[in-house]
């Protein structure tokens, strides 16, 4: 699989943001990109935003309606912007539903990234998968640092 400009933009934005939190850069994985692409296509065909069940990877989802184009930076920034709700140093965030995308983006133990994007008209779905996955209770203070 060859990586598109969209894949590279998503990777670069992840790594810019991860560097701000002393997390190592992610690398794109072609198999994980194919896996993410399959799910992005499924979401578009079903017109829903839903996490894949029995997923072995961490996963962030993004959807956009009413625009004819989407940038990788836009999707990653939407997840990262949850930082405003995150309290650093806590072992387990009590507001996980508000911060789980942010914490997965910067999770230190994650090393590989899969990216999928599906667009039709003015609907777009972005799927990112992370390996190893993040967001494990008791590990936030070690993996999400300021």
From TrEMBL:
<dbReference type="InterPro" id="IPR014044">
    <property type="entry name" value="CAP_dom"/>
</dbReference>
<dbReference type="Pfam" id="PF00188">
    <property type="entry name" value="CAP"/>
</dbReference>
<dbReference type="InterPro" id="IPR035940">
    <property type="entry name" value="CAP_sf"/>
</dbReference>
<keyword id="KW-0964">Secreted</keyword>
<dbReference type="InterPro" id="IPR002413">
    <property type="entry name" value="V5_allergen-like"/>
</dbReference>
<protein>
    <recommendedName>
        <fullName>SCP domain-containing protein</fullName>
    </recommendedName>
</protein>
<dbReference type="InterPro" id="IPR034113">
    <property type="entry name" value="SCP_GAPR1-like"/>
</dbReference>
<dbReference type="InterPro" id="IPR018244">
    <property type="entry name" value="Allrgn_V5/Tpx1_CS"/>
</dbReference>
<feature type="domain" description="SCP">
    <location>
        <begin position="5"/>
        <end position="138"/>
    </location>
</feature>
<dbReference type="InterPro" id="IPR001283">
    <property type="entry name" value="CRISP-related"/>
</dbReference>
<dbReference type="GO" id="GO:0005576">
    <property type="term" value="C:extracellular region"/>
</dbReference>
């Amino acid at each position: 699989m060859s990586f598109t400009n969209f894949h590279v933009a998503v990777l670069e934005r992840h790594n810019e943001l991860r560097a701000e939190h002393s997390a190592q850069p992610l690398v794109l994985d072609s198999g994980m990109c194919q896996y993410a692409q399959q799910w992005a296509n499924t979401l578009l065909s079903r017109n829903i935003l839903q996490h894949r069940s029995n997923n072995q990877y961490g996963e962030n989802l993004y959807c956009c309606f009413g625009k004819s184009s989407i940038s990788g930076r836009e999707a990653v920034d939407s997840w990262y912007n949850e930082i405003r709700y995150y309290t650093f140093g806590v072992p387990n965030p009590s507001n996980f539903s508000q911060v789980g995308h942010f914490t997965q983006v910067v999770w230190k133990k994650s090393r590989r990234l899969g990216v999928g994007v599906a667009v039709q008209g003015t609907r777009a779905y972005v799927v990112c998968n992370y390996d190893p996955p993040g967001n494990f209770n008791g590990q936030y203070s070690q993996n999400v640092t300021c």
